[in-house]
Amino acid sequence: MTLDNYAFVLFDHDAARRAFRNSFSLAATAAVVIALIAVPLAYFLVWRRSRVLRLISLVTELPYALPGVVLAISAILLFLKPLPLLRVSLYNTVWIILFCYLARFLALGLRPVVSGYHQLDRTLEEASQIAGARLLRRIRTIILPLVAPAAAAGALLIFLTAFNELTVSALLWSSGAETLGVVLFSFQQGGDSTYAASLATLTVIVSIALMLSTLLVQGLPRGVLPWRD
Amino acid sequence: MARLSIDRVSKSFGDFRALDDVSLEVRDGEFVAVLGASGCGKTTLLRQIAGFDKLDAGRIFIGDSIVSSQTRHLPPERRRIGIVFQSYALWPHMTVAENVAYGLTVAGIKDPARSRRVDAALNLVELHGFGERRPAMLSGGQRQRVALARCLVTEPSLVLLDEPLANLDVHLRASMEQEFADFHARTGTTMVYVTHDQAEAMALADRIAVMSKGRILQVATPSQLYREPADAVVAAFIGEGMIVPAEVRAVKGDGTCWASLYGYNTRMRCDVSQTLIGKAQACLHAGDLKIAERPDSGLRVRVDRTVYQGGYFRLSVPEPFDTAPGGVIGIDVRGGWIIPSSTPP
Ligand SMILES: Nc1ncnc2c1ncn2[C@@H]1O[C@H](COP(=O)(O)OP(=O)(O)O)[C@@H](O)[C@H]1O
Ligand SMILES: [Mg+2]
Fold first, then answer.
1. Does any domain span residue A227?
2. What ipTM does the predicted assembly reach?
3. Model-level pTM?
4. Which chain B residues are within 8 Å of A221, Cβ to Cβ?
């Protein structure tokens, strides 16, 4: 095993290079989008105690609890036909993977934000309300900055999980839309276990680097990231 | 116009009645204190006025417009009032100046005018030069003053204060009390000031609403509350009133009467409209009593315990009065008030 194997998977193997780019973009997009959804969703869940949303939040647990294969098959059944009105099909594109990531990891990103709201004093919002601020401004100027650390922690958890995810994308990948997990698996299947090992090592290095970088960040809420505290 | 009118408001949490048929009129420019023990519903009342919670029954008016009723609920952001929260509720991610400027920004006031008003508000609470600090870097008293500046900068015509001094050291309280009084005198803002500290309420308020278990028992000026409590709970709560059984013998119609305390006859104050005679309760304060020159005159009591209180002694005398020899003194009763609601019909 030499550095050549790393160079090969990083620079020479087309599918592996694409997989790095795809997994990175998919994981980052899922992380950011979910964080942005989780902040208003958790607001209504925790502070407005919306019953409908509580039901929905139970439902968001489902795609996370189910095996990835089940989620992937449901997505295939859902998106096999072209979308109504738009007439485009998500099947066989990278978007079907993104959709599944959003569904699967929403619960993961929501949890830290919910606990962030629980730790926040609601009079902070009420003070801005009394100052005349309407809901959107309150969310933007008061709530978002205060729950941002929790949302960021959730986003990081999502990124780390999605970055080397296999079970969902194994059924959904298409040529050009490979993920790291898929390429790694096919190296291993094809007997190229040295390439597989190099790729695995690289993903582990990225993950560890990200985890370590959070140790430098102050002000993340306690008890959200398991490797801190 | 910032008259505040609370009309028969009730609020329950589950089975628990936190506000029970509460009515209160606050005149324009008046300083009213809501005084009551912890848990009696003071914060709940303020939250109703601010509009954070919907009420179960009754109506609330600010100025001439109805802001809360069963059918109407103006959201807090449109009530144009100021609040100083019990926890101060300063935004930790903003500097002091940003905290104070927030309400002005929301109101669309742009910068030369905005920063001028922020500076003026910080000057007013003697925090000039603290604008760039974060709330976390301030002491309790300073945070409290930032909260006050933030509330005042938009010049609301009605200001609600929820135990604003409860978290401060004793020596800071007196100077902050003075600051509230000065501010009120200068601006004529209508203020509702919630506290559990009767000395604070007495010192600041034009009128005090005494609250207990979700009800308002009496609304009166501080001296009226002290001299003429409406019922036994208020009497016992205000100024350490002592409640003793009395028998009204004759009512004179000029606000005085003859009454008997444990067989000792004395003249007491009573309501001008009082006509009933018979058993009643009287409220006595230490100032109404005087140790008689001779121990065999006055109301004769045995002293159970004396405790030095710094400059004076507190004497405990047990009931029923026992005049067995030893430690017996006579007490002249030179005042006292017949509690109006105590005379049976
Ligand atoms: N949101 C709520 N849910 C249930 N009970 C409440 C709520 N808010 C207040 N209470 C109850 O109402 C009573 C009055 O509370 P509060 O108004 O905060 O008292 P105070 O401010 O006078 O100390 C307390 O017994 C409290 O437990
Ligand atoms: Mg309170």
1. no
2. 0.82
3. 0.82
4. none
